[in-house]
Specification:
By secondary structure, this protein is α/β, with parallel strands linked by helices. The protein is built from 14 helices and 13 strands. The strands form 3 sheets. The chain has an 8-stranded mixed beta sheet with strand order 3-4-2-1-5-6-7-11, sandwiched between helices. The protein has a 3-stranded mixed beta sheet with strand order 8-10-12.
Length: 354
């Protein structure tokens, strides 16, 4: 019985493991010795073991599927979202409610990858974890409600909850991201880089493997955190809105000799297509985050992870090079991979200023 209890204590269910952040957290937990279950629709069999994960056939929108998958789990990572921003108002909260019900039934900890959508212009430019949340978008309002439901349940003692908010993701596996869908074109050599922001306006980026490692570290210590704990992840700060694009161009030139052009993202086309392309309506709604700087500090996270060397932070050029290789925008060269590993080892544990 004691052995079974110990196994359950290090068993996690990851909802959204087929996606970017969910997959990265699942792998980080796996590598840390956790037993990881992942729910996936359309699986050919009831279950299968692949990549060190235990995949179960099921749907996060089906309460019984989530309850079944969560049996014996001490942690549920809620990293599932409707693809392409579609049907958020219909799907997001019901999925979370299923997670909450499963966590309540088992006294488990719910872990939520958070976003900056919660914050409106009044919280800019430096919102803290506890800043007022007055979003100006529909997705932001839903995100606020998600956190409210988690806080309410945690404060009642139904379960524990940990939220880690981060900026725009990039990195291997971050397919639905501004980096992969706005700045460059996956599967093609980089000859043009589209800059989404305004010159002089900073923007916050988060390298997916670093976020996942930080989240796994919080999960390891969730029993010693407050019942409802929120943290910010600083990641990489593009101070003038051009540093990310310039870094991509620098890496592409070093690797291929090509001098890529930096052009403006065609917001005008997004605006014109909004009436007929639902995705563009959702993209346009978030434009304010490219017009005004929002920078989250990570003093709270730094203090919490100080005993393990601080917050994971891969150097920007290493992170971008890995991302471009994963997207098929650069050839994967063994020498480059060796350079990346050694560079990351030197910088991955450097504390990032809050």
């Amino acid at each position: 019985m004691a052995a079974m209890t110990a196994v359950a204590r290090r068993t996690a269910l990851v909802l959204g493991a087929s996606g970017g952040i969910g997959g990265a957290v699942a792998r980080a937990l796996r590598d840390a010795g956790w037993t990881v279950r992942a729910l996936k629709r359309g699986l050919a069999s009831e279950s299968e073991h692949r990549d060190g994960l235990h995949w179960l056939r099921g749907d996060a929108l089906v309460a019984d599927d989530v309850q079944r998958a969560a049996q014996g789990c001490s942690v549920i990572v809620h990293a599932v979202n409707p693809p392409g921003y579609r049907r958020w108002s219909e799907l997001v909260l019901p999925m979370l409610d299923n997670t909450i019900a499963a966590a309540k039934a088992r006294g488990a900890t719910v872990v939520l990858p958070g976003t900056v959508y919660n914050f409106g212009p009044d919280a800019m430019p430096h919102p803290t974890e506890d800043s007022p949340q007055r979003p100006v978008t529909r997705k932001g309002a839903i995100r606020v409600e998600m956190e409210r439901r988690l806080q309410e349940g945690a404060e009642r003692g139904d379960f524990r909850a940990v939220i880690l908010r981060a900026g725009d993701f990039f990195g291997p596996g971050a397919a639905n991201s501004w980096f992969s869908q706005g700045l460059v074109t996956p599967g093609k050599p980089v000859t043009r880089i589209q800059q989404a922001g305004t010159d002089g306006v900073g923007h916050q980026w988060a390298y997916l493997p670093d976020v996942a490692t930080a989240m796994a570290a919080l999960i390891e210590r969730c029993d010693r955190l407050p019942a409802f704990a929120r943290f910010h992840f600083a990641g990489h700060w593009d101070a003038d809105g051009r540093q990310m694009a310039e870094a991509i161009r620098r890496i592409v030139q070093r690797r291929t000799g090509v001098q890529a052009r930096i052009t403006r993202f065609p917001w005008w086309a997004v605006r014109l297509a909004q009436p007929v392309v639902p995705l563009f309506r959702e993209v346009a709604e978030m434009r304010y985050l490219w017009r005004e700087p929002l920078r989250m500090g990570e003093a709270r996270l730094t203090a919490e992870l100080a005993d393990i060397g601080g917050v994971p932070h891969t150097p920007l050029d290493v992170a971008i090079e890995r991302t471009l290789e994963a997207l098929g925008c650069l050839p994967a060269v063994q020498a480059s991979a060796t350079f990346n590993r050694s560079s990351a080892a030197a910088g991955v544990r450097s504390g990032h200023p809050a």
